[in-house]
Model the fold of this input.
Amino acid sequence: MMYYQYIIDYYNEFPFLVRLIWIISGILFSIIVLLTIYLKLVRSFLRRKDKEIAKFKDDYEASLIEYLYSGNEQEELSEVQKSIILKLKEEVPFKSKRKIIISILYNLMNEVSGEMSDSIKILYYETGLIDYAISRLSNKNWYIIAKGIGELTRFKIDETHDKVAKFINHPRSEVRKGTQLYLVNMFRFEGLKFLNTLSAPLSEWHQVQLLETLQKFDDQQICDIKPWLKSTNDTVVSFAIKLAQIYNQFEVKDVLIELLSHKAKEIRVSVIEVLTHLYGVEAKDMLKANFNELSLDEQISFFALLEKLVIPTDEPFVEKHLFHKNFEIQLLALNILKSINIDKYMGLTNLPKDEKSPAMLKLVNTI
Done:
Protein backbone atom coordinates (compact mmCIF):
# COMPACT_ATOMS: atom_id res chain seq x y z
CA MET A 1 0.00 0.00 0.00
CA MET A 2 2.85 2.37 0.94
CA TYR A 3 4.51 1.51 -2.38
CA TYR A 4 1.47 2.64 -4.39
CA GLN A 5 1.15 5.79 -2.24
CA TYR A 6 4.77 6.57 -2.96
CA ILE A 7 4.17 6.24 -6.73
CA ILE A 8 1.13 8.52 -6.53
CA ASP A 9 3.02 11.15 -4.52
CA TYR A 10 5.96 10.91 -6.89
CA TYR A 11 3.57 11.34 -9.87
CA ASN A 12 1.90 14.38 -8.26
CA GLU A 13 5.26 16.10 -7.94
CA PHE A 14 5.60 16.22 -11.78
CA PRO A 15 4.57 19.37 -13.66
CA PHE A 16 1.05 19.32 -15.17
CA LEU A 17 2.32 18.89 -18.76
CA VAL A 18 4.37 15.81 -17.83
CA ARG A 19 1.38 14.28 -16.01
CA LEU A 20 -0.81 14.94 -19.07
CA ILE A 21 1.71 13.17 -21.30
CA TRP A 22 1.71 10.17 -18.95
CA ILE A 23 -2.08 10.03 -19.00
CA ILE A 24 -2.20 10.19 -22.82
CA SER A 25 0.52 7.52 -23.06
CA GLY A 26 -1.44 5.27 -20.72
CA ILE A 27 -4.62 5.70 -22.75
CA LEU A 28 -2.79 4.99 -26.02
CA PHE A 29 -1.11 1.92 -24.52
CA SER A 30 -4.51 0.62 -23.34
CA ILE A 31 -5.99 1.17 -26.80
CA ILE A 32 -3.08 -0.71 -28.44
CA VAL A 33 -3.54 -3.63 -26.03
CA LEU A 34 -7.29 -3.72 -26.65
CA LEU A 35 -6.83 -3.52 -30.46
CA THR A 36 -4.23 -6.31 -30.34
CA ILE A 37 -6.65 -8.52 -28.42
CA TYR A 38 -9.47 -7.60 -30.82
CA LEU A 39 -7.38 -8.39 -33.90
CA LYS A 40 -6.37 -11.74 -32.45
CA LEU A 41 -10.03 -12.57 -31.80
CA VAL A 42 -11.02 -11.46 -35.33
CA ARG A 43 -8.20 -13.48 -36.88
CA SER A 44 -9.22 -16.52 -34.84
CA PHE A 45 -12.86 -16.04 -35.91
CA LEU A 46 -11.91 -15.70 -39.59
CA ARG A 47 -9.77 -18.83 -39.46
CA ARG A 48 -12.67 -20.80 -37.98
CA LYS A 49 -14.96 -19.29 -40.60
CA ASP A 50 -12.58 -20.25 -43.40
CA LYS A 51 -12.41 -23.79 -42.10
CA GLU A 52 -16.20 -23.97 -41.92
CA ILE A 53 -16.52 -22.58 -45.46
CA ALA A 54 -13.93 -25.06 -46.76
CA LYS A 55 -15.82 -27.90 -45.09
CA PHE A 56 -19.17 -26.65 -46.43
CA LYS A 57 -17.66 -26.31 -49.88
CA ASP A 58 -16.29 -29.85 -49.86
CA ASP A 59 -19.63 -31.24 -48.66
CA TYR A 60 -21.67 -29.27 -51.20
CA GLU A 61 -19.27 -30.07 -54.02
CA ALA A 62 -19.57 -33.78 -53.29
CA SER A 63 -23.37 -33.51 -53.07
CA LEU A 64 -23.63 -31.57 -56.34
CA ILE A 65 -21.39 -33.99 -58.21
CA GLU A 66 -23.46 -36.86 -56.84
CA TYR A 67 -26.57 -35.00 -58.00
CA LEU A 68 -25.21 -34.74 -61.56
CA TYR A 69 -24.41 -38.45 -61.81
CA SER A 70 -27.54 -39.76 -60.07
CA GLY A 71 -29.99 -39.07 -62.85
CA ASN A 72 -31.76 -41.77 -64.80
CA GLU A 73 -33.63 -41.92 -68.07
CA GLN A 74 -36.91 -43.11 -66.54
CA GLU A 75 -37.75 -39.91 -64.68
CA GLU A 76 -36.74 -36.25 -64.69
CA LEU A 77 -35.27 -36.42 -61.18
CA SER A 78 -34.17 -39.57 -59.36
CA GLU A 79 -34.85 -40.10 -55.68
CA VAL A 80 -31.20 -39.34 -54.85
CA GLN A 81 -31.41 -36.06 -56.76
CA LYS A 82 -34.63 -35.10 -54.98
CA SER A 83 -33.05 -35.73 -51.58
CA ILE A 84 -30.02 -33.61 -52.51
CA ILE A 85 -32.29 -30.78 -53.71
CA LEU A 86 -34.23 -30.97 -50.45
CA LYS A 87 -30.99 -30.78 -48.44
CA LEU A 88 -29.69 -27.81 -50.43
CA LYS A 89 -33.06 -26.06 -50.22
CA GLU A 90 -32.63 -25.91 -46.44
CA GLU A 91 -29.22 -24.23 -46.82
CA VAL A 92 -30.14 -21.71 -49.53
CA PRO A 93 -31.74 -19.13 -47.16
CA PHE A 94 -28.33 -18.60 -45.51
CA LYS A 95 -26.43 -16.02 -47.55
CA SER A 96 -22.91 -17.39 -46.93
CA LYS A 97 -23.95 -20.93 -47.85
CA ARG A 98 -25.94 -19.69 -50.83
CA LYS A 99 -22.85 -17.95 -52.22
CA ILE A 100 -20.85 -21.17 -51.92
CA ILE A 101 -23.53 -23.22 -53.68
CA ILE A 102 -23.80 -20.69 -56.52
CA SER A 103 -20.02 -20.55 -57.03
CA ILE A 104 -19.80 -24.38 -57.20
CA LEU A 105 -22.75 -24.56 -59.59
CA TYR A 106 -21.21 -21.91 -61.83
CA ASN A 107 -17.90 -23.78 -61.97
CA LEU A 108 -19.75 -26.97 -62.84
CA MET A 109 -21.71 -25.14 -65.57
CA ASN A 110 -18.40 -24.26 -67.22
CA GLU A 111 -17.24 -27.87 -67.17
CA VAL A 112 -20.34 -29.75 -68.34
CA SER A 113 -22.77 -29.49 -71.24
CA GLY A 114 -25.93 -31.04 -72.63
CA GLU A 115 -28.08 -32.99 -70.18
CA MET A 116 -25.81 -32.24 -67.22
CA SER A 117 -26.09 -28.53 -67.90
CA ASP A 118 -29.87 -28.90 -67.96
CA SER A 119 -29.73 -30.78 -64.65
CA ILE A 120 -27.89 -27.87 -63.04
CA LYS A 121 -30.58 -25.49 -64.30
CA ILE A 122 -33.29 -27.71 -62.80
CA LEU A 123 -31.47 -27.68 -59.47
CA TYR A 124 -31.13 -23.89 -59.71
CA TYR A 125 -34.91 -23.66 -60.08
CA GLU A 126 -35.89 -26.34 -57.57
CA THR A 127 -33.68 -25.05 -54.73
CA GLY A 128 -35.16 -21.56 -55.08
CA LEU A 129 -31.83 -19.96 -56.02
CA ILE A 130 -33.52 -18.31 -58.99
CA ASP A 131 -35.89 -16.45 -56.66
CA TYR A 132 -32.97 -14.76 -54.91
CA ALA A 133 -31.49 -13.69 -58.25
CA ILE A 134 -34.82 -12.29 -59.42
CA SER A 135 -35.33 -10.45 -56.13
CA ARG A 136 -32.08 -8.58 -56.77
CA LEU A 137 -33.67 -6.97 -59.82
CA SER A 138 -36.00 -5.05 -57.49
CA ASN A 139 -33.17 -3.72 -55.35
CA LYS A 140 -32.53 0.04 -55.20
CA ASN A 141 -28.76 -0.38 -55.47
CA TRP A 142 -27.45 -0.62 -59.05
CA TYR A 143 -24.63 -3.02 -58.16
CA ILE A 144 -27.11 -5.52 -56.65
CA ILE A 145 -29.18 -5.33 -59.85
CA ALA A 146 -26.04 -5.91 -61.94
CA LYS A 147 -25.14 -8.97 -59.84
CA GLY A 148 -28.63 -10.39 -60.32
CA ILE A 149 -28.47 -9.94 -64.10
CA GLY A 150 -24.99 -11.47 -64.20
CA GLU A 151 -26.16 -14.53 -62.29
CA LEU A 152 -29.17 -15.04 -64.56
CA THR A 153 -26.83 -14.77 -67.56
CA ARG A 154 -24.38 -17.33 -66.18
CA PHE A 155 -27.13 -19.86 -65.53
CA LYS A 156 -28.81 -19.15 -68.89
CA ILE A 157 -32.21 -18.26 -67.45
CA ASP A 158 -34.15 -16.95 -70.46
CA GLU A 159 -37.58 -16.81 -68.76
CA THR A 160 -36.67 -13.54 -67.05
CA HIS A 161 -36.43 -11.63 -70.35
CA ASP A 162 -39.09 -9.04 -69.51
CA LYS A 163 -37.75 -8.42 -66.02
CA VAL A 164 -34.21 -7.83 -67.30
CA ALA A 165 -35.02 -5.96 -70.53
CA LYS A 166 -36.47 -3.00 -68.60
CA PHE A 167 -32.91 -2.02 -67.62
CA ILE A 168 -31.79 -1.34 -71.21
CA ASN A 169 -31.58 2.42 -70.61
CA HIS A 170 -30.58 2.28 -66.94
CA PRO A 171 -28.52 5.31 -65.79
CA ARG A 172 -25.56 3.09 -64.81
CA SER A 173 -23.51 1.72 -67.69
CA GLU A 174 -22.68 -1.45 -65.70
CA VAL A 175 -26.36 -2.36 -65.51
CA ARG A 176 -26.96 -1.51 -69.19
CA LYS A 177 -24.01 -3.64 -70.30
CA GLY A 178 -25.10 -6.57 -68.16
CA THR A 179 -28.62 -6.32 -69.58
CA GLN A 180 -27.39 -6.20 -73.18
CA LEU A 181 -25.04 -9.16 -72.71
CA TYR A 182 -27.86 -11.13 -71.05
CA LEU A 183 -30.17 -10.52 -74.04
CA VAL A 184 -27.53 -11.45 -76.62
CA ASN A 185 -26.39 -14.54 -74.69
CA MET A 186 -29.97 -15.76 -74.30
CA PHE A 187 -31.53 -14.77 -77.63
CA ARG A 188 -28.62 -14.19 -80.08
CA PHE A 189 -29.66 -11.80 -82.85
CA GLU A 190 -33.20 -11.60 -81.52
CA GLY A 191 -31.71 -10.19 -78.35
CA LEU A 192 -30.31 -7.27 -80.33
CA LYS A 193 -33.80 -5.83 -80.63
CA PHE A 194 -32.87 -3.67 -77.65
CA LEU A 195 -31.07 -1.50 -80.23
CA ASN A 196 -34.48 -0.30 -81.42
CA THR A 197 -35.05 1.62 -78.20
CA LEU A 198 -31.50 2.21 -76.94
CA SER A 199 -30.91 5.87 -76.20
CA ALA A 200 -27.66 5.50 -74.23
CA PRO A 201 -24.33 5.19 -76.09
CA LEU A 202 -22.65 1.85 -76.87
CA SER A 203 -18.93 2.10 -76.13
CA GLU A 204 -16.47 0.63 -78.63
CA TRP A 205 -15.33 -1.94 -76.07
CA HIS A 206 -18.89 -3.05 -75.38
CA GLN A 207 -19.60 -3.32 -79.10
CA VAL A 208 -16.63 -5.71 -79.32
CA GLN A 209 -18.03 -7.75 -76.40
CA LEU A 210 -21.42 -8.04 -78.07
CA LEU A 211 -19.86 -9.11 -81.35
CA GLU A 212 -17.69 -11.71 -79.62
CA THR A 213 -20.77 -13.08 -77.85
CA LEU A 214 -22.65 -13.37 -81.15
CA GLN A 215 -19.75 -15.13 -82.84
CA LYS A 216 -19.76 -17.89 -80.21
CA PHE A 217 -22.95 -19.24 -81.74
CA ASP A 218 -22.91 -21.06 -85.09
CA ASP A 219 -25.53 -21.28 -87.84
CA GLN A 220 -27.39 -18.14 -86.92
CA GLN A 221 -29.81 -16.28 -89.11
CA ILE A 222 -29.00 -12.59 -88.83
CA CYS A 223 -32.01 -10.32 -88.54
CA ASP A 224 -32.77 -7.18 -90.55
CA ILE A 225 -30.21 -4.55 -89.54
CA LYS A 226 -31.58 -1.73 -91.72
CA PRO A 227 -33.53 -0.06 -88.85
CA TRP A 228 -30.31 0.14 -86.81
CA LEU A 229 -28.41 1.70 -89.72
CA LYS A 230 -31.07 4.43 -89.69
CA SER A 231 -31.00 4.93 -85.92
CA THR A 232 -30.69 8.39 -84.38
CA ASN A 233 -28.17 6.88 -81.93
CA ASP A 234 -24.80 7.14 -83.72
CA THR A 235 -23.26 4.32 -81.67
CA VAL A 236 -26.10 2.00 -82.76
CA VAL A 237 -25.39 2.94 -86.39
CA SER A 238 -21.69 2.25 -85.83
CA PHE A 239 -22.49 -1.18 -84.38
CA ALA A 240 -24.84 -2.01 -87.26
CA ILE A 241 -22.08 -1.10 -89.75
CA LYS A 242 -19.79 -3.63 -88.02
CA LEU A 243 -22.54 -6.26 -88.30
CA ALA A 244 -22.88 -5.50 -92.02
CA GLN A 245 -19.18 -6.15 -92.55
CA ILE A 246 -18.77 -9.23 -90.35
CA TYR A 247 -21.90 -10.95 -91.68
CA ASN A 248 -21.51 -9.79 -95.32
CA GLN A 249 -24.84 -7.97 -95.56
CA PHE A 250 -24.83 -7.16 -99.29
CA GLU A 251 -28.57 -6.43 -99.14
CA VAL A 252 -28.01 -3.26 -97.08
CA LYS A 253 -25.64 -1.59 -99.56
CA ASP A 254 -28.29 0.98 -100.53
CA VAL A 255 -28.71 2.07 -96.93
CA LEU A 256 -24.93 2.19 -96.48
CA ILE A 257 -24.62 4.46 -99.50
CA GLU A 258 -27.16 6.80 -97.92
CA LEU A 259 -24.93 6.94 -94.84
CA LEU A 260 -22.11 8.44 -96.92
CA SER A 261 -23.76 11.78 -96.17
CA HIS A 262 -24.11 11.11 -92.43
CA LYS A 263 -23.25 14.03 -90.15
CA ALA A 264 -20.58 12.06 -88.24
CA LYS A 265 -17.25 11.72 -90.06
CA GLU A 266 -16.35 8.49 -88.20
CA ILE A 267 -19.49 6.85 -89.53
CA ARG A 268 -18.82 8.02 -93.09
CA VAL A 269 -15.29 6.61 -92.95
CA SER A 270 -16.57 3.29 -91.54
CA VAL A 271 -19.18 3.09 -94.29
CA ILE A 272 -16.54 3.53 -97.01
CA GLU A 273 -14.48 0.75 -95.43
CA VAL A 274 -17.49 -1.59 -95.29
CA LEU A 275 -18.45 -0.77 -98.89
CA THR A 276 -14.90 -1.70 -99.86
CA HIS A 277 -15.41 -5.05 -98.17
CA LEU A 278 -18.82 -5.50 -99.84
CA TYR A 279 -17.60 -4.40 -103.29
CA GLY A 280 -19.79 -1.31 -103.25
CA VAL A 281 -19.21 -0.28 -106.86
CA GLU A 282 -22.33 1.88 -106.73
CA ALA A 283 -20.63 4.24 -104.25
CA LYS A 284 -17.44 4.68 -106.24
CA ASP A 285 -18.65 7.24 -108.80
CA MET A 286 -20.48 9.22 -106.14
CA LEU A 287 -17.39 9.48 -103.95
CA LYS A 288 -15.17 10.23 -106.90
CA ALA A 289 -17.41 13.12 -107.98
CA ASN A 290 -17.32 14.62 -104.46
CA PHE A 291 -13.72 13.74 -103.68
CA ASN A 292 -12.57 17.30 -102.92
CA GLU A 293 -15.38 17.77 -100.37
CA LEU A 294 -14.35 14.65 -98.45
CA SER A 295 -12.28 14.83 -95.27
CA LEU A 296 -8.72 13.50 -95.45
CA ASP A 297 -9.71 10.27 -93.65
CA GLU A 298 -12.54 9.74 -96.13
CA GLN A 299 -10.20 10.40 -99.06
CA ILE A 300 -7.74 7.79 -97.79
CA SER A 301 -10.57 5.28 -97.29
CA PHE A 302 -11.88 6.06 -100.77
CA PHE A 303 -8.51 5.34 -102.38
CA ALA A 304 -8.45 2.02 -100.50
CA LEU A 305 -11.87 1.29 -102.03
CA LEU A 306 -10.66 2.42 -105.47
CA GLU A 307 -7.63 0.11 -105.21
CA LYS A 308 -10.03 -2.83 -104.88
CA LEU A 309 -12.62 -1.69 -107.45
CA VAL A 310 -10.51 0.18 -110.01
CA ILE A 311 -11.19 -0.09 -113.74
CA PRO A 312 -9.18 1.39 -116.65
CA THR A 313 -11.47 4.43 -116.96
CA ASP A 314 -10.39 5.53 -113.47
CA GLU A 315 -6.86 6.21 -114.72
CA PRO A 316 -7.27 9.99 -115.28
CA PHE A 317 -8.61 10.43 -111.75
CA VAL A 318 -5.74 8.43 -110.28
CA GLU A 319 -3.14 10.41 -112.26
CA LYS A 320 -4.66 13.64 -111.00
CA HIS A 321 -3.85 12.64 -107.40
CA LEU A 322 -0.39 11.16 -107.86
CA PHE A 323 1.04 14.26 -106.22
CA HIS A 324 -1.57 14.56 -103.48
CA LYS A 325 -0.37 16.33 -100.33
CA ASN A 326 -0.99 13.16 -98.30
CA PHE A 327 1.76 10.55 -98.54
CA GLU A 328 -0.60 7.59 -98.00
CA ILE A 329 -2.82 8.70 -100.90
CA GLN A 330 0.26 9.09 -103.10
CA LEU A 331 1.26 5.50 -102.39
CA LEU A 332 -2.24 4.20 -103.03
CA ALA A 333 -2.50 6.18 -106.28
CA LEU A 334 0.85 4.81 -107.50
CA ASN A 335 -0.14 1.23 -106.64
CA ILE A 336 -3.44 1.67 -108.47
CA LEU A 337 -1.70 3.12 -111.52
CA LYS A 338 0.73 0.21 -111.47
CA SER A 339 -2.19 -2.24 -111.58
CA ILE A 340 -3.95 -0.59 -114.55
CA ASN A 341 -1.07 0.86 -116.62
CA ILE A 342 2.34 -0.58 -115.84
CA ASP A 343 4.02 1.33 -118.69
CA LYS A 344 2.89 4.70 -117.39
CA TYR A 345 3.88 3.67 -113.89
CA MET A 346 7.39 2.73 -115.05
CA GLY A 347 7.61 6.04 -116.85
CA LEU A 348 6.85 7.88 -113.61
CA THR A 349 9.45 5.96 -111.63
CA ASN A 350 12.03 6.90 -114.27
CA LEU A 351 11.50 10.62 -113.72
CA PRO A 352 14.46 12.66 -112.47
CA LYS A 353 14.86 12.54 -108.73
CA ASP A 354 13.91 16.18 -108.19
CA GLU A 355 10.57 15.61 -109.99
CA LYS A 356 9.57 12.59 -107.94
CA SER A 357 7.20 12.73 -105.00
CA PRO A 358 8.24 11.10 -101.68
CA ALA A 359 5.94 8.19 -102.49
CA MET A 360 7.60 7.67 -105.87
CA LEU A 361 11.04 7.74 -104.30
CA LYS A 362 9.96 5.10 -101.84
CA LEU A 363 8.56 2.89 -104.58
CA VAL A 364 11.62 3.36 -106.78
CA ASN A 365 13.84 2.16 -103.93
CA THR A 366 11.78 -1.03 -103.64
CA ILE A 367 11.92 -1.95 -107.33
About this structure: Residues 116 and 352 are 75 Å apart (CA to CA). The radius of gyration is 35 Å.
